[in-house]
Amino acid sequence: MPPVEEDVTARPSLRERRRAAATREILEAAERRIVENGPAALSLRATARDLGMTVQALYHYFPSWSDLVTALITKAYDDMADAVQAALDATEEPAPARVLVATEEYRRWAVTHPERFQLLYGTPLRKYAAPANGPTTEAMIRMSAIFQREMFAGYTAAQLEAADAPALSPATRAHLEQLPPHGLGALPPPATALLVSAWGQLHGLVVLEVFGHTAFLGDHQAEIFRMGVRNLVKDVHSRIPGPDRM
C-alpha cells in the first residue's frame, strides 16, 4: 500500500488564534467608532476604552494609530471587493452586463457603509500616510482589478491598443507604459485612459450620493446611477474596434 500522506498544513497555535480573535475584535470596535462618530474621531485610546483594555495592551496588536488606520482601510477595501465579487459570482448575466452588476454592488456597499466609504475616499485623515506599496495599495489594486477584468472581458490586447481614446501626449503615454505590470500596468495606454476616465465618472456619482449631494433625487438615485453607468460602458465599448476591424 502507498504511504499515507500526512497533512503538512500547520494549524495556527492557540496563541495565534487568540491574537487573530483579539485583532478582529479591535477592528470591529474601531469600525463601530467610525460609524458612530466619523473617521476623524478614531483614536487608540477611545478604541481601547470601548473594549475595556488599556492603550498599552492595544499597542501589542497595533503599535500606532497609523497601523490601526492602515488595517481599517485595508479591511474596508477587502470587504467592498468581497461584496462586488460575490455579486458577480451569483449573477448569470453575460458580459457586458456584468459590469453593471459590479458597479451597482459597489454603489450598494458605499451607501450601506457611508462612514467606511468616507474613510477610503473622504477627506484624508491628518497625519496619516499609507505605507508605500503596502496592504492598502494591494487591497485597492484588488478592487480595481475586478472592474478592469469585467470592463474589458473578451477583448484582446490588440483591440485594447487600438481603442479610440483621446490622443495621449508622448509624456502621458510613456508614463502609462511604465506602470507596474500588475493592475493598470497590464493594459495598453489607450485602455488605461478609458478605464480611468470611466472609473472617475461612476465613482463620482457614488461620492455625490454618499455625501448627500444628490439627495434631491430621492428614491431615484439608483436609477440615475444605472443610467449613467450604462452610458459610460456603452461609450467605452464603442471605442474598442471589433475583430473584423483589426
State the CATH topology of the largest domain.
Tetracycline Repressor, domain 2
Regarding CATH, which class of the largest domain?
Answer: Mainly Alpha
| CATH architecture label name of the largest domain | Orthogonal Bundle
Biggest sheet details: none
Strand content: under 5%
CATH homologous superfamily label of the largest domain:
Tetracycline Repressor, domain 2
Q: Give the count of helical stretches.
A: 11
Can you give the mean pLDDT? 91
Shape by Cα distribution: globular
- Radius of gyration using CA atoms only: 22 Å
Tell how many strands the DSSP assignment holds: 0
The separation of the N and C termini measures 59 Å
- Weakly predicted, low-confidence segments: none
Which short descriptors sum up this protein?
246 residues; Tetracycline Repressor, domain 2; mainly alpha; globular; Arc Repressor Mutant, subunit A; 2 domains
